[in-house]
Amino acid sequence: MNRSKHSSFRRCFTMEANNTFHETEEEIVLQKQGNAYILSTLSGTVGEITFRLVEAGTWVIDHTYVDPRYRGHQLGKQLLNMVVREARDKGRKIIPSCAFALEEFKKDSTYADVWEKGKSTSDFSDHHSSGSAIMGR
Fold it and tell me: CA nearest 132: which of 45, 51, 61?
């Protein structure tokens, strides 16, 4: 399994993690793994976002998960921002088919430049998915 750290996010996130998770002094590391970004601690995966190419120049975000113990700390938003940053860097558009990504795209106009609104998100949603795809939940 090829894992590579995304250092700029890790530095930024480590600073936030020190403030947010100070009581546990737990370091959360972000890794890009294929078409996913994974958040992990020494005890395992705590969050993930997955995406896939659906046609030339367009990705679909099909899954976002943050362990319930880590919710409320903007981790999902930070995962989403990593995919959006990569899409911008590569000139891609995004179809936000998972409920979390779609809601964030609707709330935040800064995603407008990468949002492929011409496609129905329901064509790409996985209605049977719940929990973590990577963690097998």
Answer: 45
Match 């990504």 to its residue by tokens: 101
| C-alpha span between 97 and 110 (Å, rounded) | 18
Q: By the 8 A CB rule, do 62 and 124 touch? A: yes
Mean pLDDT value across residues 82-99: 96
Q: pTM for the complete prediction?
A: 0.74
Residue 119 has pLDDT above 70, yes or no: no
Please answer whether residues 121 and 111 qualify as being in contact, where contact means their C-beta atoms are separated by less than 8 angstroms.
Answer: no
Cα 77 from chain centroid? Answer: 7
Distances (CA, A) of 111 to 41, 56, 106, 121: 29, 19, 9, 15
